[in-house]
Specification:
Number of domains: 1
Oligomer: single chain
Number of strands: 0
Structural class: mainly alpha
Shape: globular
Largest sheet: none
Organism: Acinetobacter gandensis
Helix content: over 70%
Order of helices and strands: HHHHHH
Protein name: Lipoprotein
Length: 119
């Protein structure tokens, strides 16, 4: 019983230890994952009849220029798609736009991390 207790204490301490800081590349990957998730949410909004004007108005409040640029690009692309296409395969359309913008983001050259809240 004492061995089991000692092992559980050690496991807890290892689990609580500090994680190594993320490399700039890992941070960018995380940012791009958030951009992809935002694209998916924008597609969901479009599928649920949220008007483009309202979406653009909301996106205009974003303070970080890099993020704002990505979001505005997503809005333009998503709202340019024919409604029949995005409603034919609802889940597929969301996944496709998420993957597309995650990849676009990863391929984008960057020198510094944008100031963003993970999505």
């Amino acid at each position: 019983m004492k061995k089991l207790f000692a092992l559980s204490v050690i496991a807890a301490l290892v689990g609580c230890s500090e994680k190594a800081p993320l490399t700039p590349e890992q941070q960018w990957q995380g940012y791009c994952k958030s951009v992809g998730n935002a694209a998916r949410t924008i597609m969901l909004d479009r599928q649920n009849a949220i008007e483009k004007e309202k979406a653009v108005e909301h996106a205009a409040k974003i303070e970080d220029e890099t993020t704002k640029k990505f979001i505005m690009e997503i809005l333009e692309e998503v709202y340019a798609l024919p409604e029949a296409e995005i409603k034919a395969d609802v889940e597929g359309a969301r996944e496709k736009i998420r993957a597309e913008f995650t990849e676009k983001c990863i391929a984008t050259p960057h020198t510094e991390m944008p100031d963003y809240k993970p999505f």
